């Protein structure tokens, strides 16, 4: 979650630095809404930068998918190690 917040902040700083949005609050709000694909549409980028919104949205979807995959691998490995330990304990007669 913290890494996603960092990426949202990086996008927000970029929008602010390039003058895509008028202030920091708007930049970070727009970045968070876009990254999470909520997309309220109450704040939009200026015309020359408008295509960055879909790019950030796609980046958010891909990064959340990557996080989900990583989480699944970690939980699977933990479950697998517990299964091996339980199996070893059952063979040795311990519960």
Per DSSP E runs of 2 or more residues, the count of β-strands stands at: 0
**How much strand content do the residues show?**
under 5%
How many individual helices? Answer: 3
- The structural class is mainly alpha
Distance between the termini: 37 Å
Q: What oligomeric state is this?
A: single chain
The shape is rod-shaped
Strand/helix succession: HHH
Unreliable stretches covering 5 or more consecutive residues: none
Largest sheet: none
Helix percentage: over 70%
Instruction: State mean pLDDT (0 to 100 scale).
Output: 93
Radius of gyration: 21 Å
Question: How do the helices and strands line up, and which of them pair or pack?
Answer:
Blueprint: H1 2-17, H2 24-35, H3 52-92
Helix pairs in contact: 1-2
Descriptive keywords:
single chain; 95 residues; mainly alpha; 3 helices
Can you put this structure into words, describing what you see?
- The chain is mostly helical.
- The protein contains three helices and no strands.
- The longest helix is centred in the last third of the chain and has 41 residues, at 52-92.
- The model has no long low-confidence stretch (mean pLDDT 93).
């Amino acid at each position: 979650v913290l890494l996603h917040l960092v990426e949202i902040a990086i996008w927000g700083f970029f929008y602010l630095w390039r003058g895509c949005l008028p202030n920091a609050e708007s930049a970070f709000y727009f970045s968070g809404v876009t990254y999470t694909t909520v997309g309220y549409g109450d704040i939009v980028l200026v015309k020359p930068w408008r295509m960055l919104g879909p790019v950030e949205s796609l980046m958010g979807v891909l990064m959340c998918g990557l996080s989900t995959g990583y989480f699944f691998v970690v939980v699977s490995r933990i479950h697998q190690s517990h299964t091996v330990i339980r199996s070893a304990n059952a063979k040795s007669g311990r519960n």
